[in-house]
Amino acid sequence: MFDGASRQVTKPASTRVAMFGGTYDPVHIGHLRSAVELREALMLDHVHMVPAHVPPHRNDPAISGQSRLEMLRLGIGDTPGLIADDRELSRNGPSYSVDTLACLREAYGDGACLIMAVGHDAFLKLAQWHRPERLFELANLVVIDRPGHTGALPHELVDLIRERMVETPEALMASPAGRVLRMALSTALPISATDIRARCRRGESIRYLVPDAVASYLEVSGAYRE
Ligand SMILES: Nc1ncnc2c1ncn2[C@@H]1O[C@H](COP(=O)(O)OP(=O)(O)OP(=O)(O)O)[C@@H](O)[C@H]1O
Ligand SMILES: O=C(O)c1ccc[n+]([C@@H]2O[C@H](COP(=O)([O-])O)[C@@H](O)[C@H]2O)c1
């Protein structure tokens, strides 16, 4: 596994971009540190953080897409390279990643190195996603380690990633799509949106689990308290 903290790769000429999608219900510092470390470790131009409108394979979010997007914008603030990307919110139907990646591929061109970043928990279910083979025609995959989410890979997933696993960022970046790299964060954080919503419901503080601006937004809006 690639230890993102310990190595840097040589800055390449071609564009490197990641899509890091999520429900972001709400965004928390586990997401934001992941995006920052991903960008630094792989020297990415941009990380598109894309809130899902209708997340496939899970319950509807607790609050509106616009509120989740607003918190994402507040959380990102002026962080270099991170983009709060609203393209899924303006699309109807399930927010399939394959459609979002196709959009980004069109925008950045065939030569760009396009990455889809997912946490290990999301990765474990990848074989059930919409058109999983097509995902690899459009992008490389980076799997971010997430504390508390380990376990054996399902057989269908092993079949899907066979021949695609690489050990270094250089090997990943050598192809615009189709390869898979596992990445360890130096600040792996056992934080989840489920826990944050539960704390809000119980009237507990969520300070320092989310950026201050997000905590203030949630306090004022009263979201997740019911
Ligand atoms: N603490 C974390 N560290 C690394 N990756 C994370 C972390 N939290 C979420 N992710 C990843 O970020 C992406 C979006 O996650 P999501 O918005 O579902 O947040 P979540 O905390 O997992 O939410 P929930 O608890 O509601 O399932 C997924 O790929 C997920 O694996
Ligand atoms: O495309 C799919 O079929 C698909 C199935 C499950 C999840 N995803 C995407 O994976 C990202 C993380 O999902 P989640 O449910 O962990 O927030 C988010 O961008 C989802 O839209 C995508």
From TrEMBL:
Q: What is its pathway?
A: Cofactor biosynthesis; NAD(+) biosynthesis; deamido-NAD(+) from nicotinate D-ribonucleotide: step 1/1
Reported EC number(s) for this entry are 2.7.7.18
Q: Which SUPFAM superfamilies match?
A: Nucleotidylyl transferase (SSF52374)
Which residue range or ranges hold the Cytidyltransferase-like domain?
19-199
Q: Does the keyword ATP-binding apply?
A: yes
Name a GO molecular-function annotation.
nicotinate-nucleotide adenylyltransferase activity
Q: Mind listing the GO biological process terms from this record?
A: NAD+ biosynthetic process
This protein's superkingdom? Answer: Bacteria
Q: Which Pfam families match?
A: CTP_transf_like
Keywords, in A-Z order = ATP-binding, NAD, Nucleotide-binding, Nucleotidyltransferase, Pyridine nucleotide biosynthesis, Transferase
- Catalytic class of the enzyme: transferase
Q: Does the keyword NAD apply?
A: yes
Q: So what does this thing catalyse?
A: nicotinate beta-D-ribonucleotide + ATP + H(+) = deamido-NAD(+) + diphosphate
Family from the record: Belongs to the NadD family.
Role according to the record: Catalyzes the reversible adenylation of nicotinate mononucleotide (NaMN) to nicotinic acid adenine dinucleotide (NaAD).
**Name of the featured protein:** Probable nicotinate-nucleotide adenylyltransferase
| Species, as recorded | Aidingimonas halophila
